[in-house]
Amino acid sequence: MQSNLINFIQVLRTRDVRVSPAETLDAMDVAATLGYADRALLRDGLAITLAKTAQEEVIVLDCFDRFFQQSLADFSTRKTADMNEESQPQESVDASQQYGEDNDAQMAALQHAAESLPELQSMLASPLMQNLASNDRNALTLAMNQAAEQIDLHQIEMFTQKGQFTRRILDAMGEAQIRDTVIALEQADSPALPVLQRYRDILREQVRDFVEREFLLHAGGKSQKFMEEILSKTRLNNIEHIYLHKVQELIRKMAKKLISRHSRRRRRVKRGQLDMPRTLRKSAASDGVMFSTYWRQVRKEKPQILAVCDVSGSVAAYAKFLLLFLYSLQDVLPRVRSFAFSSHLGEVSAYFDNHPVEKAVELINWHYGGATDYGNSLLDFTELAMDDINSNTTVIILGDARNNHGDPKLEILQRIYQRSRQVIWLNPESRRAWGSGDSEMLRYQSACHFCAECNNLKQLERIVDQLLKSTR
Fold it and tell me: Cα torsion at 149, 154, 159, 161 (round to 10°)?
């Protein structure tokens, strides 16, 4: 049972429920204390132990119900599943009785055929066939679970593996003996052949359903992580429209992880210098004994980030996701001011104050898109923000530095470099393309503290992570 509990916790981890090794040991202690007789009690106990948020509690309860599901629908249940709800109890009983009578008749036909066929006689004596003949759901379920544990079914990851694992479970349960007997009945042209084929098909159907449930349970989170891994390494301009909602969800998940990593822990500390005049005044009531001390609070100037994004056609997609990423980190990032440009530059921070992030990015792309002119845009930036740049300012520029052979105004970027804390340039083009054609990247690079190729979410996450470390 401990191995089952560990596998259950592994399922939770694939669904982004954080469970530490210490919490795993706590869950084992809870299971040992509560026991396994009362399913509802164990379910609630594990939920209290493993879930840390309301959302995680929902996931734990759902995964518990699915992971510890011990039911196997028999043939008669499937036969009556679509019946009217009011008439179902009586008709289910009738169907079950009819199924029992038919089953007895079919088993009699098999036993009669076994008199002349040793393979069939040996097969009828096998535990698997006896469980099928008696419709022993508990025994069949137990056999499937044992076979699944034997072949490591919890390792299933892709839907293309379902057929493979179904065959392996059937082999582990001994279905090969039924298969061989069916071949022998076909060769002997026995009238018992359809009866045995029916039992074989029922077994295969139940195993396929079992594998399907296990796939949805074990591979659901793995498939999602696999998809997220692919999207995080795909060039942002190659992501199709149908995947945009998945990318936005992935950005929020990345932002949540960075927020958890870089959020400041509040703690009580003595800050600044001792304020002696105030301390002495307050100690007069205690005859000069300084029971309470007061400190001069020195207000530290907060850093700010200026995000300057090229939204021309060639790099608009990259700017969209950078802005979406930055504004998803408002809890840990210092104040962010955003600027967008193509032929001219303007501040777009107000768009994010008045609209949701996704809508704001769309409006920005529509308003500032066009042919690129880095020189003219840097002149506009000088008028709008140069006076606000100081040693606590980080300037992030996102663009391919392709200036259509215009004046790059390198001296303006050099002034920004001298006044700011750091200038970071993110270029979605490959480094091999820097400086080719009308690219001014190699010249701009001399006026930047850090330049990097950035064209997918994995690279963007790594760069933003370093940015957060430098601004703390």
Answer: -40
- Alpha-carbon distance of 293 to 290, in angstroms, equals 7
- List the end-to-end C-alpha distance of the chain, in Å, as a whole number: 46
pLDDT tens-digit readout, 52-87:
888 888 888 888 887 776 443 333 334 333 434 444
pLDDT confidence bin for 299, thresholds 50/70/90? low
Cα 376 to Cα 116, 340, 382, 404: the distances in Å are 96, 13, 10, 12
Which residue is it, tokens 């204390």? 33
Count the Cβ atoms, other than its own, within 10 Å of residue 349: 16
What 3-state class would DSSP assign to 172?
helix
**What is the distance between the alpha carbons of residues 253 and 239, in angstroms, rounded to a whole number?**
18
- Helices H / strands E in the chain, number of each: 21, 8
Tell me the pTM.
Answer: 0.57
- The number of residues in the chain equals 472
Q: At what angle do helices 193-232 and 162-173 cross, to 10 degrees?
A: 140
Question: Is the separation of the CB atoms in 329 and 262 below 8 Å?
Answer: no
The token duo for 426 is 């993110």
Give the list of residues 6+ apart from residue 423 with CB closer than 8 angstroms, or none.
394, 395, 397, 413, 416, 417, 447, 448, 449, 450
- Strand ranges (E), 348-407: 393-398
The amino acid at 248: Q
Distance CA 405, CA 441 (A): 12
Tell me if 444 sits within 8 A of 401, measured CB to CB: yes
Answer yes or no: are the C-beta atoms of 388 and 419 closer than 8 Å: no
Residue 239 makes CB contacts below 8 A (sequence gap 6+) with 231, 247, 317
Looking at the DSSP bridge assignments, the partners of residue 402 are 439
